[in-house]
């Protein structure tokens, strides 16, 4: 988990690094563009400065010329004012001089007109220059604001990048510290592993020496003692009896039992589905009780009525297959002959599905053509017709694969051993497909029933039939899911355990050789049972030697031994006589007991007919002698009697009524039967829990193996990750330096741009002031 998290972190860092590199390139392009824009702006400012200086010089010259003209006009006005009184006095002299003044006036008027025109032209030029200056000023201000916003954005991006880089550097430093701790622990583990490997190598050397010596000894024994090699030919190797694996057989029987239960559930669901479908055809779209249904539906219902003859054999075939798997047999594909019968039954059911499929499709089309069918119901019927086609195709696929699995027990060349795994995986895929199709059928049929229930013509009989069909479809879906998950969990076990013999040889196992192998197995088991007969007890060897020494060392003679033999014979004869005497006594006592029982029975019949059997039994069980029986019979008539049994103690008198013994025994029997049922259920629960725990243990062992593999892979990934970390740190240092340089350059560039902009603003302000002064002067003029 830690390695996966580290790998995810490194992937994220690599992605961020690539993003930052892309952003760096974009920023570089932006900086270059800004530099080019600033250079262009500088050139434009220079040109504007030159044009402004020229205009200012022209304005200065014009103002100077205007001042000169104004002074000259004033002089001329003064001269006119002086010349008017003189003209009155000297009319005559004025006529001569008037010609001169008129000429001068015309010259002055022409000069004045020229000056006025020139002044108008200068006013027009000044107005145009002022407007152009305002327009340029507005453009420069807008560009200045845009540049300021871009500079702020760039500064924010730079700040964000610096923060990200600082966070990534801190994360990498923390990861580096963690990795250093992990590397230290891994180094310790590596040292321990090295020590263990050295120990293992030493053990391997010792074992190699030991095994080599044993191999030499065994080879020498084989060469000297074994006359021939009986494993040379593969066709004869198939006759060898494999090792009896009781655990494997119990496992296969358990798996077959689970499969039988699943098939039984599936068979009941299929029977319910076909029968309820038949009932639905009789009700919808035309009720057979009111009107006659179409001949197509009649034929379809007739075929559906025969479903039990095709569906029931599936359960029977699976039951025969389960019964053929016992603890004494070898369960492989070559020995499971009952697989052929199950395959035949499945083939017959697939033929039945093919036969009813066109009628089912036509029946759905007939429902769509009826006046009660809406557009939504018609769409659901079309979906169901497609689902029924898929269901038949899936059953055909299953039938082909099951027929292939049945081939090794009948035809040896029909299916090679190398194809077992592919056939089994295809069976699992087909079962999963069957489950998916049943889920689609359940969904579409549920939608169809909801639409039909909303119809105004829907009867209660149709609603109940639809609910029954829907429940059977749900049962089919659940059964298909259970079978698919069951087969998927056990497919690996099937692949590894459904064949026997040498794995290198292929195609040497045939059904005949498998049958012969089973016969040889039975003979070997019988021979082993014959060898396991109990051995007669004998005197131990040491005890026999001690007795022999006693016999040899004894001082008894043959006469003494003969006397001992005679004495023992006499004792035996006396014991036989006593035995005969006591046998006769026992017979007499038995006869007397029978007579006494008859007498007591006759007496008790007069009192009550129900107590005779109990008194006879108590007297037969407790009477030690005939005298005791007479006393007991005398007391039985007058006094109450107690009878003891396994059920309890019952006290009764002659006058009391006979108790209901049968009802009490029925209660006890029912109690014990309920107890037995409870114990069997507990036993089944314990068996299921044991199977579940076994599966969990197996899954945990697989997880442990995968965890060890992942640990090895993670150590390698840790090495690669440490290398990547060092490389990324170097790249980060280089990129950090480059970004710092770029940031310093950008800050310098921004400062220079701010200075130039401030200068431009000052120049613009001076130009405004100058233009305002000129405009005021022109207005005053």
From TrEMBL:
Keywords: Coiled coil, Endosome, RNA-binding
Keyword Coiled coil recorded: yes
Cross-referenced Pfam families: KLRAQ, PPP1R21_C, PPP1R21_helical
Residue segments, region Disordered: 84-106
Cellular component terms per the entry's GO annotation: early endosome; membrane
Domain Protein phosphatase 1 regulatory subunit 21 N-terminal residues, every copy: 11-112
Location in the cell: Early endosome
Coiled-coil region(s): 3-72, 137-196, 558-592, 697-738
Domain of life (superkingdom): Eukaryota
Keyword Coiled coil among record annotations: yes
Molecular-function GO terms, alphabetical: RNA binding
Signal peptide residue numbers: none
Entry protein name: Protein phosphatase 1 regulatory subunit 21
Organism: Dipodomys ordii
Gene: Ppp1r21
């Amino acid at each position: 988990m830690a390695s996966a998290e580290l790998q995810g972190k490194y992937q994220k860092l690599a992605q961020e690094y690539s993003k930052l590199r892309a952003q760096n390139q974009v920023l570089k392009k932006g900086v270059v563009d800004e530099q080019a824009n600033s250079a262009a702006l500088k050139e434009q400012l220079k040109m504007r400065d030159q044009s402004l200086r020229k205009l200012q010089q022209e304005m200065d010259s014009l103002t100077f010329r205007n001042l000169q003209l104004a002074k000259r006009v004033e002089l001329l006005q003064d001269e006119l004012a002086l010349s008017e009184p003189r003209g009155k006095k000297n009319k005559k002299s004025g006529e001569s001089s008037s010609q001169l003044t008129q000429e001068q006036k015309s010259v002055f008027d022409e000069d004045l007109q020229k000056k006025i025109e020139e002044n108008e032209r200068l006013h027009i030029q000044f107005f145009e220059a002022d407007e152009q200056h305002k327009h340029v000023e507005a453009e420069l201000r807008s560009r200045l604001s845009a540049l300021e916003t871009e500079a702020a954005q760039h500064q924010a991006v730079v700040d964000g990048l610096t923060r990200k880089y600082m966070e990534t550097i801190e994360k990498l430093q923390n990861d580096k510290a963690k990795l250093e701790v992990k590397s230290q622990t891994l180094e310790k583990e590596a040292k321990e592993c090295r020590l263990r490997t050295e120990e293992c190598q030493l053990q391997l050397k010792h074992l190699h020496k030991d095994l080599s010596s044993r191999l030499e000894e065994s080879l020498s024994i084989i060469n000297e003692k074994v006359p021939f090699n009986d494993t040379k030919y593969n066709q004869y190797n198939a006759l060898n009896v494999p090792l009896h694996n009781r655990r494997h057989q119990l496992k296969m029987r358990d798996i077959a039992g689970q499969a039988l239960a699943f098939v039984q559930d599936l068979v009941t669901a299929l029977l319910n589905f076909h029968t309820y479908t038949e009932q639905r055809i009789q009700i919808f779209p035309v009720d057979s009780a009111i009107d006659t249904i179409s001949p197509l539906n009649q034929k379809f219902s007739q075929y559906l009525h025969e479903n039990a003859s095709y569906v029931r054999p599936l359960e029977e075939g699976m039951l025969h297959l389960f019964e053929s798997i016992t603890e004494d047999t070898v369960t492989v594909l070559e020995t499971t002959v009952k697989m052929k019968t199950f395959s035949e039954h499945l083939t017959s059911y697939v033929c039945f599905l093919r036969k009813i499929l066109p009628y089912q499709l036509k029946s759905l089309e007939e429902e769509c053509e009826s006046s009660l069918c809406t557009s939504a119901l018609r769409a659901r019927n079309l979906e169901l017709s497609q689902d029924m086609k898929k269901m038949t195709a899936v059953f055909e696929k299953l039938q082909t694969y099951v027929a292939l699995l049945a081939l090794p027990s009948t035809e040896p060349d029909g299916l090679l051993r190398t194809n077992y795994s592919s056939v089994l995986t295809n069976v699992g895929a087909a079962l999963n497909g069957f489950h998916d199709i049943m889920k689609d059928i359940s969904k579409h049929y549920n939608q169809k029933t909801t639409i039909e229930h909303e119809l105004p013509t829907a009867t209660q009989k149709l609603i109940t039939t639809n609910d029954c069909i829907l429940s059977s479809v749900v049962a089919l879906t659940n059964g298909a899911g259970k079978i698919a998950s069951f087969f998927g969990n056990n497919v690996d076990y099937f692949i590894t355990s459904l064949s026997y013999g040498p794995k290198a040889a292929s195609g040497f196992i045939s059904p005949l050789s498998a049958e012969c192998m089973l016969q040889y197995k039975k003979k070997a088991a019988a021979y082993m049972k014959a060898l396991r007969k109990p051995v007669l007890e004998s005197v131990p060897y040491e005890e026999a030697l001690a007795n022999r020494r006693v016999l040899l060392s004894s001082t008894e003679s043959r006469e003494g031994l003969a006397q001992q033999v005679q004495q023992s014979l006499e004792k035996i004869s006396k014991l036989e006589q006593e035995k005969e005497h006591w046998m006769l006594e026992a017979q007499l006592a038995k006869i007397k007991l029978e007579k006494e029982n008859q007498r007591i029975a006759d007496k008790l019949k007069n009192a009550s007919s129900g107590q005779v059997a109990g008194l006879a039994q108590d007297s037969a069980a407790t009477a030690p002698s005939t005298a005791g029986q007479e006393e007991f019979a005398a007391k039985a008539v007058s006094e109450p009697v107690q009878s003891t049994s396994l059920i309890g103690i019952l006290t009764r008198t002659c006058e009391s009524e006979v108790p209901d013994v049968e009802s009490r025994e029925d209660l006890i029997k029912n109690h014990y039967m309920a107890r037995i049922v409870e114990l069997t259920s507990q036993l089944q629960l314990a068996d299921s829990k044991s199977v579940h725990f076994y599966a969990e243990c197996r899954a945990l062992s697989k997880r442990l193996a995968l965890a060890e593999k992942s640990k090895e892979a993670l150590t390698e990934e840790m090495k690669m990750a440490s290398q990547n970390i060092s490389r990324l740190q170097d790249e980060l240092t280089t990129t950090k330096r480059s970004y710092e340089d770029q940031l310093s350059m950008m800050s310098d560039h921004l400062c220079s741009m701010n200075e130039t902009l401030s200068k431009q603003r000052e120049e613009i302000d001076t130009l405004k002031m100058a233009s305002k002064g000129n405009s005021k002067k022109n207005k005053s003029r």
